[in-house]
Amino acid sequence: MAERWRQRPVTAGQASRALHREPQGESGATLVELVVAMSLFATVLAVVMTGIMGISRSTVRVQGAASSQTDVWEVFTTLDQQVRYADAINLPGTVGDTSWVEYRGITAGGGERCYQWRYVSSTGVLQTRSWLESGSPSAGSWSTVLTTALRSSTASPFTTLAPTAALPHQQLKVNLAVTARGDGASALSAAFVARNTSLASPGYQSSTDKPVCNPTANRS
């Protein structure tokens, strides 16, 4: 049995073929194949990056639009709460690149408070301030409620609507729009009714009517 499993001697022919046999495992890709593979990888990577950038831009646009809508809603709510209890609204006016409007409201203690809004078209800033009518407007500092994202629509930023027999109250109409990174706009076009006014209330009737809150001195 031992002789049966004895290793057989290697012949000269077998040794020659073994020496000239190509090494196993050393075959690889050619330079052309590597270039093609790298080109395909670069193409796939470019497509993926383009998709990621598109998703990022869409996310920014959605966030910007949501932010502008929130800003518009806050301005709408503030105006609605203030104008609703006003007892007089002045005729809006323009000084240079700034549009102005004032109205007078009744405080919880029964006093009279002036509210003033201004829109600067050159910078797109909307601001507001208030003060007791018996005091000075210098006591009320300006608060910026919308910044340069704001732009005026084709209509005037502030207009007043005439009271009628059917609706004997002064109304303030605001026409503005807020853009979000130049993509679309959130519009604010609404009429606010001053329920404490009447056909005889001061401020609105004409440019010669006695206004409230001294706009001649305070629109500067």
From TrEMBL:
<keyword id="KW-0812">Transmembrane</keyword>
<keyword id="KW-1133">Transmembrane helix</keyword>
<keyword id="KW-0472">Membrane</keyword>
<feature type="transmembrane region" description="Helical">
    <location>
        <begin position="34"/>
        <end position="55"/>
    </location>
</feature>
<feature type="region of interest" description="Disordered">
    <location>
        <begin position="1"/>
        <end position="22"/>
    </location>
</feature>
<feature type="region of interest" description="Disordered">
    <location>
        <begin position="200"/>
        <end position="220"/>
    </location>
</feature>
<protein>
    <submittedName>
        <fullName>Type II secretory pathway pseudopilin PulG</fullName>
    </submittedName>
</protein>
